[in-house]
Amino acid sequence: MTNDRTALTRSELAHLLTEAAQNVGGIPAAEYPTAAARSYLHPVLGPLAAGPRVITELNDRFEGFVAIEPRPAGSAGLFALASYASALGWLTESFAELTSSVDEICTRVGIPTEPCAPIAATSGGTERDDEFDFAFNAVELEAVRNAAEAAGLAPDDYVEVLSQSLLAAARITDACMEISSGLLDDAELLSEVSDRPRLDNDPGSLPALVRSLLSRMEATE
Question: What is the top-level taxon of the source organism (predicted)?
Fold first, then answer.
């Protein structure tokens, strides 16, 4: 985005948020080629590869948004600025958590372990409260054993790191979907905003918009 002497219209601001929502929403579906030796990382590799690119693009657009002349001053511009900044911050924090989770998985795989007993038909995921529980049939058990062998892991260890990977993928997917949904909601709200800043309590006033944004942010904590 380049500097312009004309302030962005509500339609342009809504398009900015909508485009950001689409970019964020596409992160969970990103694919990345995964070697058989690292198949337990497949759930997270796509988002992990796509996320930094999207964050960089959003950050560049945000910097251009802030640098535009005249700077956003009306209710619509200020609301769009706050919404965009909130989404960017949330996405950045979510990817920091994803990176930490993947680092834990890699560390776990690199630590020498005691030989594990053969995998049972039902195996717990991680020791976290939101663990996955797996129940495998005979065909799935064979597939797990083969995948574990290709990864150089005991079957129980393979299921553990795979469950951690699936949990991390689920968390970043939830975050991206909520961020994307929020941006789309805010884009829709812009159609109700006045081009001039109002300080009353009408739906299109600046205080009402800020309360709406803060309420949505608190609801996701």
Answer: Bacteria
Question: Residues near 191 by Cβ (< 8 Å), separated by ≥ 6?
Answer: 10, 14
CA angle in degrees (0–180, nearest 5) for 54-59-63 = 155
Looking at residue 143, its pLDDT comes to 83
> Structure tokens of 165?
């990977």
Cα angle 195, 197, 198; round to 5? 115
Non-local (6+) Cβ contacts of 171 within 8 A are 94, 97, 98, 101
According to DSSP, the residues that pair with 123 across neighbouring strands are: 134
User: Cβ neighbours of residue 186 under 8 Å, at least 6 residues apart?
Assistant: 17, 79, 80, 83, 213
- Contact between 157 and 165 under an 8 Å Cβ cutoff? The reply is no
* Residue 140: band (very low, low, confident or very high) from pLDDT cuts 50, 70, 90: low
Q: How far is CA 184 from the centre of its chain?
A: 15
Q: Give the tens place of pLDDT for each residue, 95-124.
A: 999 999 998 998 887 733 344 433 333 334
**Helix (H, G, I), strand (E, B), or coil: what is residue 124?**
strand
Q: Which residues contact 154 (CB under 8 A, 6 or more apart)?
A: 113, 115, 116, 148
Q: What is the pLDDT of residues 64-107, one digit of tens each?
A: 877 776 666 677 788 888 889 889 999 999 999 999 999 899 88
| Angle at which helices 10-25 and 155-189 cross, to 10° | 170
Q: pTM score, two decimals?
A: 0.75
Q: Which bin fits 113, alpha (ψ -120 to 50), beta or left (φ > 0)?
A: beta
